[in-house]
Structures are given as C-alpha cells and as structure tokens.
Design a protein that fits this description.
It is built from 18 helices and 22 strands. By secondary structure, it is of the alpha/beta class.
Length: 518
Amino acid sequence: MSSLPAEPSSVPALRVREVRKDFPGTRALDGVSLDVLPGEVHALVGGNGCGKSTLMKILAGVQPADAGSAEIGGAVHDLRHFSAALARRCGLHFVHQQSSVFPDMTVAENLAIGRGYETGPLGAIRWARLRRRVAAVLERFEIAARPDDRVDRLRPATQTMVAIARALQDQEVAHEGVLALDEPTASLPPDEVATVLDALRRCAARGQAIVFISHRLDEVLGVADRITVLRDGRVVATVARDGLDHDGLVELIVGRRVEPLAAAAPAAVREAADAAPALEVAGLAGGAVRGADLTLHAGEVVGVAGLNGSGRSTLLRLLFGEQQAREGSVRAGGRALALARPRDAIDAGFAYVPEDRAVAGLFPELSVAENLSGGFAGDYARHGRLVHRLERADARAAMERFLIRAASPEVAISTLSGGNQQKVVLARWLRRRPHVLLLDEPSHGVDVGARAEIAGLIRAAAEEGTAVLAVSSDFEELVALCDRVLLMREGRIAGEVAGAQLTVERIDHLLHSEAALS
C-alpha cells in the first residue's frame, strides 16, 4: 500500500523529519518522518516496541533524539536539544495513558495545577475568577461537569476530557498547536469510549491537529483521517483511513496476514463427564464482590465481563488469596480450600496473571530468565546454591515454547516489548501446568500480533486441561477466546451468555440493561 503525502496546499501543524534514536543494542527509531495537518486526527499505530512511545517522549522533550528535527509554527527545532519547556511553548500538548488528573480534587483545582492559581494583592486565591475561567473552558470543550465537581465523581470519559481540557486550556486560538493522546481510551469501559472519540472529532472539526495513539484498531479506523504505521522503528506507511479495513491495517502493522482465532471448541466436548469441577465458588464475598457463585471445568475458558466497579478484578484477587474474603466457599477438584494468602492458592494449583504486569507481574530490574523463574527459584537450587546454568537452559526452552522474542535469557525484562513481557508472565505460570489459571486483562496494552499469540497460548493450556477464568473489558476478546462469558454486576454473577448468544452486542446490551439481568 503506497504512502500518501500531505496535501500540498496544507501547511502541517507538525512536521517531523528523519528522527533517529539508539539504545544499547537496538535502534528504536530509524529515520522517522511524518506530517500532522491542522484539523486532522492522525493515528500513530504499530506493535509493541515499534517506536511510538519513544517518538512521543522525544516530541515531549523528556528524551533527546540522536538526530532529527521538528518544524512547528514555521520554526525548525533540533530534536537533539528539545526540552519539555520548549515543547510547551511550541504548543505541543500531551495526554498520557496514565491519567494525569487528581481524583480527590475539583475540576477547577485540576485545571489550575500546572497553570497556577490567580491570586490577589495579598496572595489570596481568586476563586470566583478561577471558577469563571474554568466554566468557560468546560463550555468550550462541551464537558458535562462544573468547576466545583470532584473529579473522582465524574464518569471515566469525563475525567479523560478534563485531562484534555487542561492540556489545551491556554491556547489563544482554539485550534493552534498539536494535541497528542497516548492510549486515551485504554482504561475506559466500552460505553465511555464513544464520548471521548466524539469529542476528538469536534476538536478536529474546529481545526485542531491531533495525534492519536491506540492499540484498539476499530477506534483508530473510526476516528482517524490518516494513519501512520511504525514497524521496527521505521515508517512503513502513511495511509488515508478511507478504503482501509481492519485486516488491511493489521497486515501493515504485523507485516504479514494474521489469521483470526477459530471459534472456541464447546466446553462440554473437552471436559470429562465424571470429573469434579476444577473450581466451585459459592457465596464468595469480599471488597466489591458481594456474593459470587460460579463453576469452572477443566479445559474450559470462561470469561468475566462487567462494568467498572462490578467486582470483576476483585473476584480474581479473592480466588488467589491476594485479598481476604469475608464469607463464601471455594472448592477445587472437589476439595475445600482456605485461601488466606497467595501461597495457599499456588499450592492448590492456581496461577494468576494480574492486569498491571509492570507493577504486580514483573521484576523490572531482573533478566528474562530470572523473571521466568521468579517465585520458583528453589527449583534450581542444588546443595544450597542456585545453578544458573539450569535456569538459563529452562528459560531458553520457555522462550521457544511460549514465543518470547528476546536476544537472550540474560537481557533485562525491561528491554522487551509489552507483548513479550506479558508472555513472560504467562509462561512463568503455564510452565507449571496449573489446574486453574486466573487472567486479568490478558491482552491489555498488547499489539495485535502478540494478542493473537497470547490467545493461542491460553487456548493451548485449556486443551491440556487447565481451567481458565479470564476478566477482560474487551468484549471482542472474550467472544473470540471463551466458551462462555459470565456477566458481573454489583459484585454478583448476574447472568451468562454462551453459544449463539455469545456476541459483543449481546454482552454489551445485557450489561447495560437493568431489566435483562434482574
């Protein structure tokens, strides 16, 4: 697919030229060039490790380039010496995936932070003037909030819009500069995403230049005017959205055609008719979970769908002993369990892959081999000493089996892409052939190629007899991966969909319909 140059009559709001950045042992960016036009949503996509984040850090002035320039407002800047302060003065505004809003403060206070409070002669904050200014900003961005509203009481999409408004509030002209958003919808439930995308379309219609980074390709195809695809630090294409479909975009990102997942085999075919359930949960309560009941069989992949606050992630933490239950019972293979701590769950054959792998799943300062053996290093102890040769040999075998791409087992886990890091966390557990595998957002922040590979590893584990319970906010993932999906509302399992009823539309409808699950 040929690249499309910027329209000759349009002066780019941002022109990036020949950006290069090297890290030890790898070239993160290799001559990247792109133009972002006023009034367009320009998507930047690519697999984990393709260079998107590195490019954004350079443009934000938090990381120097080794070569390259950026032209903004007619002025050309050497990106080897570009600072965060200069980026702000040039009108580059960034909203990152990790929300930068302060949830326990008001909207007005959030917009004042960074910009500063207006004060009187004696230093007193002029609250009335601040509220008037913030009210005008909220009206300008069509945000359904008031200056004195606490941010944590707003809808998730509204919180994201507050972050965008804070980034753009000081523009003298409504469409000047460039707004760059890094995965702004990653943590939003599906019903909230449309609110943010609609707001971005309105901003672009007023002339705002927007860079939109996302792994959610349907959102990219729904909101972008043009799409730049990065692979291995290079631009492989800049294409118009028109005429490009999901499969075509996937092929550009991965460099090959990715076959869709086959439908999951019916659980009834795979489970032994006379076997006790792998997991039985009755009346489980703790935290946001108020009394959950479920049964899971060996070889079955069961999903859990629920809106924010439904208790879906808490359910997994309770089952792994990471959070204490107030009441209820858990049985595995017909045996009653007391899950007072994670070690109890591990001893019972449970495995748990948390949502935030960077915080709770990885040892970021250690190597790939050490992460693969993390928590089980005793397996390599001989006469009181750790035999690293055995650890490395097992790590190489695991890297091959679980499709982990790294130069060697000795490289730091932090140098791997997000998809490969997730495969390391998954492999750590799957090597032990768990009876029950608990997954929280298994493909969160993972590119489309790695997502398909991770799904294949999960399904392979199920075929070998592991019972899988997977929480995901991505309903398409649940439909493709699972035999059936449990619907969670207000801390309870309120329904189930399977067979012909297992569709994205059906899950979405039931979760948002009070009558349907009552």
